[in-house]
Amino acid sequence: MLRFLASRLAKGVVVLLAIAVLNFALIRAAPGDPATVMAGEAGAADEVFVQQLRERFGLDRPMVEQLGIYLKGILTLDLGFSYRQGRSVASLVGERLPATLLLTGSAFAISLLLGTALGALAARRAGTWADTAITTAALLFYATPLFWIALMSQILFSLKLGLVPNVGYETIGAGYTGLARVLDILHHLILPALTLGLFFTALYARMMRASMLETAGSDYVRTARAKGVSPSVVTRRHVARNAILPVVTLAGLQAGQIVGGAILTETVFAWPGIGRLMFEALAQRDYQVLLGVFFVSSAMVVLFNLVTDLVYRAVDPRIQVGG
Amino acid sequence: MKRSILGAASIAALLACAGAAGAQQAASGSPKKGGALQVVVTPEPPMLMQGLNQNGPTNMIAGNIYESLLRYDEKLNPMPSLAKSWEISPDQTVYTFKLQEGVTWHDGKPFTADDVVFTLDKFLREVHPRWRPIVNAQVKAIEKVDDLTVRVSLKQPFGPFMLSQEVASAPMIPKHVYEGTDFRANPANNTPIGTGPMKFGEWRKGSFVKLVRNEAYWDKDRPHFDEMYFQFIPDAAARAVAYETGKVDVLTGGAVEIFDVARLAKLPNSCVTTKGWEMFAPHAWITPNTTRGILGNKTFRQAMMYAIDRDFGRDVIWSGYGKIPTGPISSKTKFYSAEGVKIYKYDPEMAKKLVKESGYKGEKLQFLGLPYGETWQRWAEAIKQNFADVGINMDIVSTDVPGWTQRTSNFDFDLTFNFLYQLGDPATGVARSYVSTNIVKGNPFGNVGSYSNPEVDKLFAEAAIAPAEARQALYTKVQQILAEELPVLWLLELDFPTVYRCNVKDLVTTAIGINDSAKNVWKE
C-alpha cells in the first residue's frame, strides 16, 4: 500500500511538472501580454513605456529563462507575484478559496446525495411515472445551458418572488457578524449551489440509474434473488454497491475540479471564487495568476484521482490498487 | 517668470476659478448626511492605486480616494480642487498653483508642495502613460515656491496644459510613502493613501470595495456619505437584476448593455444621465489600415463612409444614444468645428459609384471586431451588411481584448473598430491618431492606420503650442482636411448612460462625472 502511494505521488509530481510546462506554453501562445493590456487600459502609451513594463514583468527575457524561473518557483512552492494586482499569487488564490470550496463543495454534496438517491429510485421504479419524471428532469437539467438556468432562476426566485438574493456572497454593507453572517452567506449560497448542484445531480442520477439497471441484470443478482435474499438487501448489498463504481469515478473527477471553481456559476452569480479569478486573469493575460490557479487546480485533480483509486478499493475489495 | 509681471490673463484666471468654486455647491437642495451609496462598476479593477492604473473602474473608485490639483465643469472650465487658485503668465508658459491649506493625507501627514513636485516630476513621469508625453515634451521645470505654492514652467505655450490635471491623469501621490521605493511593488498600493473625501476601507476581492468617510477632509462640509460600496457583478444581465431588486443605487456607464438602459429607466425612481463624459468624450470610428491595398485609396474610404448607415447604428444598435460626428474632434471637445467640412450622409448609391471609381476588385477585407460586448458585435454585423449592399466584401474576425490590443498595436488588421478618449483638447486626445510621428508599432492608441499627411502633421504641431486665440483656425483647417481624406471613418460620439435611483442627488457635477469623487453626492 505504502509503495503504491509513494509510486503514485512520484508519478503525480511528474504529471504536475508536465502540466506546468504545458500551461506555460499554452498561455504564451495566446495573443497579447500583460504589458499591452495595461497600456490599453490607460488609453495611451508610448513604446518606451510598454517596453519598461515588459522588462518589469520579465517578459523581455528568453522564453526558456522565463519557464525556468516559473518552474523553480513551483518547486519552492512560490506561485509568484502579480504586478498587475500588486499581490502575491498565493494570497490572491488563498482569499478566493473559501468561497469556491463553499460553493463547489455544497454543489458536490447536493448532487452526489440527491443524484445517487434519485438514480437508485428511478432504477427501482423503472418504467413507472417516477422513473419517467426523474429521467426527464435529469435530461432537462443536463441539456439546458447552465447560464440560462442561472439567469432564469434569478429572475424567478429573486426578482419575481423575492425569496433569495440574485448575486453576491453576502449582503454588502449590512455589517453582519457571527451567526447572522453565516446565515446571510447561506442565504446567498442557495441559488448558485442549487443551480450548479442540479446540473451534476442530473449526471449522477442518469449514471446511477443506468448502472443499477445493468447490475440488476447480472447473474449474481439473479442468484441472490433465487437464494431468497430480500429485495431490499439485494438492492443495497448486491446492486447498489456494484453500481456505484462509475458514480465514484465521476465523483472523483468532480471533486478534483472543486478547487478549480465553476466559472459560469461564479460569473452569473457574482460569487467571489477561483473560477472568476481565473477567467479575469485570462482576459487580462495576468500570466502569474493564471499559472497559479492552473497549478493548484491540476494538483487537486491529481490528488483526487489518487483518492478515487483508494475509494475504489474500499467499495470493491476485488480491485487491487497496487496491481 | 516673476509673479509681479503676471497680467490680465492671471486676473481673469483667478476670477474664473472663483466662479467655478461656486459651481461646486450642491445643486439640488440641502444635502442629507450619512448612509451608504451602492455602486456597480465593471470589471473589477486590478488595483486602486490610480497613479499606476487608469482602468475605467479604477478611476471610478480611486477618484474618491485620490485628488488632483483641478476639477472641471461640464464646459471643461477648471475648478479648484487641491489647488485653490492658479495664475498663468501672460506668455502662457508659467503656471503657478496655490494649494489648499490644511490638507492631510489619509495617514495624517500634511499634503504640501513637495508632494506635488514629487508626483508630477518623479512618480507620474515614470509610470503614467498620459502624463509622460506632456511632462517630457512640454515641461521645463516643476518647482516648489513655498509649502503651499508650486510653479510649473513650460518650454513653450501648450494649450491643453490646464486640462491635464484631472484626477485620472494627474492624481497626487504621497511623497513620504513612495519616495525611494519600487513604485509598482510598494505595499501601499493595496491600501491606497490619498487626500480625497473617502478613505480606503476594505477590498473583498471578487465582491466589493468599501470606502469610508474621510473625517479630516479639507472641504469641511463634504463628503455626505458615511460609506461607499463598489460592487463587482461580472454578468450584465445579473447586474440589471441586481438594480431591479434594489441591491444597488448606481449602474455606471457600460455596466448594462445599452439596449437594457431604456427598460431600466422606466422603473420607478430610476433616472438616466449621459452627462459626465465631457472631458473624455469617447469618439468611435473604424480604422482602415491605409498601408493595405485598396484601403490606401481615399475614394474607397469615402465609399465606405457613404455606405455606413450611421443613423441606424445610433438609433438601433446604440438605442438612440450618442451623436453622429462630423470629423475627428468631438462636439464636446474644445475647438470642434463643422465649418466647411465634408458631410457624409448615408448614400448607398454614391457609395456604389465611388467603389467602382476606386478600382475595387471585390477582394475580401477582414474586420477585427472590438471585444467590448454584445453592442459592438451587433454594430460590426450591421456594417458588414451595409458594405455588402454596396459590393464590399468583409469578414468579421473575433478576438479577446489582449488579442485585439496586440493585433492593433502591430498593425495586423485591415479594418478595426476603435474608440478613444479625447481628453478635452485635440492636442492630447485627437492628434495622436493622425500624426505621422505616431505611426509606431507597440502602441494601440497611436496612428495605427498609418495615415500620413505632412500638412496635417504641421497643423497639429502648430496648434498645440499656438496662443489660445490662434488655435481655433488651425484646428478648423485640420478638421476640413481630415473629413475630406478620411484617415478613419468616424461613427459615433459615444454616450455611456449612467442609470441611478432618482433620490441620489448631485451624482454628476463635473466633466468626468462618475470618474470623479462623489464628494457632492447625497441620498434623499
Topology:
The complex is a heterodimer of chains A (323) and B (524).
Chain A: H1 2-29, H2 34-42, H3 47-57, H4 63-75, E1 81-82, E2 87-88, H5 89-124, H6 129-143, H7 146-160, H8 178-216, H9 219-226, H10 231-256, H11 263-268, H12 274-283, H13 287-315
Antiparallel strand pairs in A: 1-2
Helix pairs in contact in A: 1-13, 2-3, 5-6, 5-8, 5-10, 5-13, 6-8, 7-8, 8-10, 9-10, 10-13, 12-13
Chain B: H1 8-23, E1 36-40, H2 56-62, E2 70-72, E3 78-80, E4 83-88, E5 94-99, H3 113-127, H4 131-138, E6 139-146, E7 149-154, H5 175-178, E8 198-204, E9 208-213, E10 227-231, H6 236-244, E11 250-251, H7 258-265, E12 270-273, E13 283-288, H8 298-307, H9 310-317, H10 348-358, E14 365-368, H11 374-389, E15 394-397, H12 401-409, E16 415-420, H13 426-429, H14 454-465, H15 468-485, E17 489-493, E18 498-501, E19 504-505, E20 522-523
Parallel strand pairs in B: 1-10, 1-11, 14-15, 14-16
Antiparallel strand pairs in B: 2-3, 4-5, 5-7, 6-7, 8-9, 9-10, 11-18, 12-18, 13-16, 13-17, 19-20
Signal peptide (chain B): 1-23
Keywords (chain B): Signal
GO biological process, one term (chain B): peptide transport
What features would you describe in this structure?
Chain B: It is found in: Periplasm. Chain A is built from 13 helices and two strands. Chain A is mainly alpha-helical and 323 residues long. Chain A folds into two domains: 16-76, no CATH class; 96-315, MetI-like fold (Orthogonal Bundle). In chain A, strands 1-2 form a two-stranded antiparallel sheet. In chain A, helix 2 packs across helix 3 and helix 10 packs antiparallel against helix 13. Chain B has three domains: 2-65 and 196-277 and 496-523, 3-Layer(aba) Sandwich (D-Maltodextrin-Binding Protein, domain 2), CATH 3.40.190.10; 70-180, Dipeptide-binding Protein, Domain 1 (Dipeptide-binding Protein, domain 1), CATH 3.90.76.10; 283-493, Dipeptide-binding Protein, domain 3 (Roll). Chain B has helices at residues 8-23, 56-62, 113-127, 131-138, 175-178, 236-244, 258-265, 298-307, 310-317, 348-358, 374-389, 401-409, 426-429, 454-465, 468-485; strands at residues 36-40, 70-72, 78-80, 83-88, 94-99, 139-146, 149-154, 198-204, 208-213, 227-231, 250-251, 270-273, 283-288, 365-368, 394-397, 415-420, 489-493, 498-501, 504-505, 522-523. In chain B, the strands form five sheets. A seven-stranded mixed sheet of chain B has the order 8-9-10-1-11-18-12, with helices on one face. Chain B has a five-stranded mixed sheet with strand order 15-14-16-13-17. In chain B, a hairpin with a 5-residue loop joins strand 4 (83-88) and strand 5. Chain B is globular and about 70 Å long. The termini of chain B are far apart.
